[in-house]
Amino acid sequence: MYKALIVDDEPIIMDGLSRIIRWKDYGVSIAASASDGYEALSILEKEPADLIITDIKMPGMDGLQLIQSIRERGLHTKIIILSGYDDFIYVKKAATLGIENYLLKPIEEEELSATVQHTVEKLNNEKEAEFRQRKNDSILRENILFRWMNGNISESELENRADFLGIRLDREYYLVCIVHVLKQKNPDGTDQSFLPFAVQNICAELLEDYCSSIVFNSMLNDTIIIFSGSEADFRAGNLESVLGKVVGSLESSLNIDSIVTVGSRDRGHLSASVSYKRAYDLLNYRVLYPANAVISYYDIKQACKHTGCAIKIDYKDLKSAIYRKDIIAAQRFLDEIYRKVNRSNGFSPEPVKSLAIEILYNAFGTLDIHQLTDDPDGIYCCNPFEVLSRCTLPDLFDWLKKLVAAYIRGTQSANEKLSPVINSILKYVDRNYGKEISLKTLSETYHINAAYLGQLFKRETGEFFSGYLNRYRIGKAKDLLKDPTVKESDIVARVGYTNINYFSNLFKKVVGIYPSEYRSSHTGQLRQVRE
What we know:
Strand content: 5-15%
Number of helices: 23
Helix content: 55-70%
Strand order of the largest sheet: 2-1-3-4-5
Radius of gyration: 32 Å
Distance between the termini: 76 Å
């Protein structure tokens, strides 16, 4: 609703203007009225107006002087002038200062309506253009910052953009934190799209006085904080204490559970991506920590020095079984690890606990357990550290097996809540992953717009279709690579790819090593576990 101010020295005119048309039908409300220019300026200082309707001739400060004063203050308020037949010289002067129209007294309803409608359209267009510009600037800024954090921007481009985006690249140290929302407690069903922006605003407000910071939202809807400054700047405050206040405020103000991960402090702006990578990797620890915790890279690094374990395990098969929702295969893998630990001599409780933490971190760290609500056995709500402190070795592995089974069942239950279309697509991929599949081919099969289908898939599954398809195919390829009699070129074709080099590079991106390395390392690891 736009605000209008009526300025006229005749009360009858002011009253008539407020009644002659239905202002609210045009999205305008009469916010105030004034009898001369001085009073109008006094009102504007307290309550700005979008539209002013003013008489041209008034005692004290007349309409022309009022317009001049408004423009001198840099205000772009829309102005409509009321004039008599003998006021044309004043109207010409007012026109040079920018007015929307002049209306002759007595005011005609039709002419006033048309003028107000035209003025509101201009206000709407200007507001939309301003919003688009702010949005484009915000998208550009977040894109540059996110690429900086991921090391995907050249130094020259970053330096060229830095001044325009208000980014300091001359600080001595940089440290990156990530605020990750786990869940909203007791959601009321309202639109939650505002949450990332609300989190960003709270972080920016609470961290304003701690070092120099940049706060923005990533494409994953995490809030990223880039701290920079000298060593003295970082020592001046207790960062983890400040971040503790952040999660506390998010919980009390927005009713959400979150965690904050704190990366390393590194010298120079080019190393900020190192700090971000470490903070991002720490998100895997969310399964080990209670909600609203602050997890520090240096604390974890120090703890790892004292929790080494001699057993080396390849967790890729366990992760693959979890992604395939194969409970039996996942539990069999844990049984094999348990048997190896149980046969070993000289293990004290601490290394065994360390092994359990390693399993949780490597296998379950990427599982979003906080989002699952179907937990009849109370598996998820157990504090892992409490389990580690009170369980015997058999009980510990039994708990781990229950955890993975509960997670897989929970995701299966979550899939049942997907729309019929997405469920059909998931089944289609399972049957046809070796064929050509894309959003385009699926849109033709299911008679749904490809762009809409992509948005629906991302909203319901949490990932883009191309990422899901690649991950699914690579999972199938890993199973085939375990059979040394199957040629890699045949595997490539069987899982839906035509270019062996593309497949090899994609496999490394998803798994971390090339297919040939996976095949040889898996064979060697399998022998170790079976011995």
